[in-house]
Backbone:
């Protein structure tokens, strides 16, 4: 399993309802390991198994949920 982490800065993640929606929806993607959020900075961190999901699918899911991505960053980790 190859683990990667993707970080997204969202323009419009503002409250706990956004956090719950993001976590719930991203957890439905096969391969997502964990989702962390920070409403103060608008940052979402996603750890995922690259054999189960690609970063582009995570990004697409966020955009389909109505969130605008300012910045994204990807880091690969080998487990």
Residues:
């Amino acid at each position: 399993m190859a683990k990667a982490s993707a970080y997204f800065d969202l323009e419009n993640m503002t409250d706990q309802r956004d956090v719950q929606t993001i976590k719930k929806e991203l957890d439905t993607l096969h391969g997502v390991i964990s989702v962390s959020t920070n409403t103060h900075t608008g940052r979402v961190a996603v750890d995922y198994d690259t054999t189960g999901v690609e970063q582009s699918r995570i990004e697409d899911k966020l955009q389909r949920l109505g969130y605008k991505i300012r910045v994204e960053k990807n880091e690969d980790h080998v487990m």
About this structure: The longest strand covers residues 69-78. The mean pLDDT is 90.
